[in-house]
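Q: Here's a chain of 262 amino acids. Please give me its 3D structure as tokens.
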Amino acid sequence: MTLTDVQREDAGRLLRDAERHVAPIDPLAELMPGLDVADAYAVQRDNIARRLAAGATVVGHKVGLTAVAMQQLLGVDEPDFGHLLDDMVHPDGGAVRAARYCAPRIEPEICFRLAEPLSGPGVTVEDVLDATEAVAPALEIVDSRIRDWKITLADTVADNASAAGLVCGAWTPLAEAPDLAAVSVDLVVDGERVASGSGREVLGHPAAAVAWLANTLAGFDTALEPGHVVLPGTMTTAPFVSPGQRIEARFSGLGPVSVTFT
């Protein structure tokens, strides 16, 4: 790490205030030159610890930057991760206030629910599939507390990998699910298809992202737990969303999931 304890605390406070007041800040990488990814994960974990102390519960994790285009944009060659908390979860078909977010975007993903623990290193795609109880069509709401999404890798890592919300559709037992790499999705906004993709967009197979996560968490003495959910990364681009829009993702073999922003 390159920052002092005081600087890391300041970074966490800035992000907490930005989220609380829906007032994005300048990039942390500019405010605190020298911020590296190790510092950023320390900031993320401290802010999560504060939310847990206030009563929130970890329900799982998300993986970000699994798409080649996003990795190239930020000049990185691997994903990042963030935490999913119970207060981020919204019902399928429900409504969410857009004004609670700074600049929300939406991502269609295949959500995993684990029946067995996954602890790295050495976790493989096969291990992930063996440990998975069910999968569901999902929409991740991502938001950046950094102004205008002008983020570096360290910025988004510190900002809990831009995690903001999760909407899950109906669960399908993995034994009854299609090949997840071959699952296709259409992202539909107000009845108009705006993007399409497949499971192959996520590191070649969505379970590969879950394996990466389990192996990476091992470096933090953390494992994925039974009952946890994992969002492995978006299958399409991530368009911005606005009040009044209804977002639906239609997944082949898994069904639809939707949310309306008010």
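Q: Can you summarize the key feature?
A: DSSP finds seven helices and 13 strands in the chain.
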